[in-house]
Amino acid sequence: MFDSMVTFTTLINGYCKAGMVDDGVELFCEMGPRGIVANAITYITLIRGFGKVGNINGALDIFQEMISSGVIPDTITIRNMLTSLWSKEELKRAVAMLEDLQMSMLCKSYVFFNIKKNVYMLLCVASD
User: Which PROSITE patterns match (predicted)?
Assistant: First the structure.
């Protein structure tokens, strides 16, 4: 019936907007067996969906799967992940994520280092 990445991503987006992230994940899991490879937009859609329902662990799991599948997150995705962590007061996890990204050399831009500086500043303020 539907065998394209665009169709799957569109359906996943609909589920996520409706707060039905688990159904979106179920569709996502059907992509691989059909030979359909997720792109950055597919992953970002799920990350935002998990953020919308307040499931930071689900968002982090999808983020890690994104990286391990070879899809490099852009600065917007990284910023969305960090914002989710900050809003849940998970600053140490935000720092750990940044350090992992830096160690894997996925992020070497000015924007990345600016984000990293802001995380460290927030961590210092939170510890006061």
Answer: PPR (PS51375)
Is pLDDT above 80 for 32?
yes
> 48 is written with which tokens?
């935002």
Inter-CA distances, 93 with 44, 58, 105, Å: 19, 14, 18
Please spell the DSSP secondary structure of 11-59, one letter per residue: HHHHHHHTT-HHHHHHHHHHHGGGTPPP-HHHHHHHHHHHHHTT-HHHH
Burial 5-20 (b: 16+ CB within 10 A, else e): eeebbebbbebbeeee
| CA gap 21, 49 in Å, rounded | 6
Higher pLDDT: 115 or 105? It is 115
For residues 59 and 111, give the distance between their C-alpha atoms in angstroms, rounded to a whole number: 22
Contact 91, 128 (CB under 8 A): no
Whole-angstrom CA distances from 88 to 4, 6, 73, 99 are: 35, 31, 21, 19
CA distances from 16 to 35, 72, 91 (A): 22, 22, 25
Per-domain residue ranges of the chain:
1-71
Residue range 1-71, CATH number? 1.25.40
